Amino acid sequence: MIEVKDLHFTYSTGLEALKGINLTVEDGEFLAVMGQNGAGKTTLVKHFNGLLKPTTGEVLVDGVNTRDVSVAKLARNVGFVFQNPDHQLFSETVEEEVAFALKNFGFEKDVIEKQTDWALTLLDISQYRNTSPFMLSGGERKRVALASILAWDPKVIIMDEPTIGQDHLQKENLQQFIMQLNSQKKTVVVVTHDVEFVAECNPRVVLMSQGKILAEGIAEEVLTDPKLVAQASIVPPQIAQIFLGLADLGLPTNVIDVHEAAKILLNRLRERQ
Amino acid sequence: MSVFEGFKFRKVSSVVHDLDPRVKFFFVCILFVMAIMFTNLIALTVLFFIPLPFVFLARVNRQWLRSLRGAAFLAVFIFATNFIFGYFYPTSFPQVSGSVDTFVEYFVILERAAAMTLRFVVLIASFSVFFLTTSPDHLGLALQQSHIPYEFCFAFTTAVRFVPVLADEAQTIMDAQKARGLELERGNIIKRVRNYIPILIPLIVNAIRRSLELAEAMESRAWGASEKRTNLYKLKLKRADIILVMISVLMLVLAVYVWRYVPIPSVTELLFQTKAA
Predict the structure, then answer these.
(1) A105, B202: Cβ pair inside 8 Å?
(2) What integer best gives the mean pLDDT of chain A?
């Protein structure tokens, strides 16, 4: 469990990025942190594995204050997938890249081999095992980066803007993959401003703006509140926009899921016939 | 990465910011030459104070201090190597005969190591003032008006402009590798150097990738299409610039005179009343 208590954070440049955040991320939860650029989303999640330490307030990971332990210690339980895979790839082969963290954590050789195989298969990149990561496409590099985090099987997985630069099919695969991780009782925290992606996954949403939390709740409630989304400078998902527009017809306004929307519209059309 | 912070230009209006970049560069070069001329601790201490008025006039004290703090690690390294070499090869010191035995002899070597470190600090301090108060655009203009081909000027200003970008990127890469359990401070000295490989490779690869992208973006915007490129702004020397040139020349003349004719005592001599052999 991650507990954030009255967290304030100011960068060395004087920019106050977080202004009193209180938040609890339960074990096995799927959470999306949303908001416009510069809202403080990435700054907040960088506190979860100790990359940033609070200016005031505190962050507890499983009861341990992040101030008291190194990033390497926290990282054993909290995996962080960075937005740009090119900020981490450096090895000669994909296999070595995936094994990098396992070596850092001091796993035995046979465990390293086993976990590397497992992660490569999981992300469907075992065919590139001996290829240089620099030779792969953007989407594949992103998968290598993800595999290199999942390899040590952390309890919590944080993903910073996982959908950026991914085509529709890759996004869909990613969505299924995240759901699969979450069903295995992993805590998943996704930082994103991709409302459509969130609408399809329907996680708990934390909406941020200017270093503060504007609202928390299930995606259906938060993303369909026109006032809230406007305040956070994002637009509601397209399905929500349609249903908000059709509110006069007596249709519900808190619909974000495509399948649910189709069902409601189909029922309404059948009633008319 | 705070050493780079000290080289990041911020737009502020001050007497120092408004000085001609060529004159400022000339002044900094004179300081550089003076720092190289002297090995005496007292002389170098005096040199250290010369850029201070400029720092205060330009109101960049915080950033300037940050660049000095960033250079602290290298400064310690320079001090240590100078001391170690001085200890094992004491023959280069006239005051030390054969091997280092007495307290005074230790002090001589310490003073030399401190002087060499201060020389480095003077260089960082003066160049930091220059970069903190000169916009890359002005710098490019200054180079162009010094008849350097535009291609070289552009490459130079782009490089300067990208220093803070690279510094930010290095920080992100460090974070990404730390999040995968990399501990930069772990292990012996060789291991510590090796720890930086996962930082340097992505940094270099990204820099090359970015430069290729930049080249493509520039060519698609017709870079180099016109034979002779003209500029909207031209640099002109003002009164303050001429005063600074005069101060710089005077400083150099004085420094050469002192260096040639005035024997400056070392701190050891002052403290222990010993005379150099």
Answers:
(1) no
(2) 92
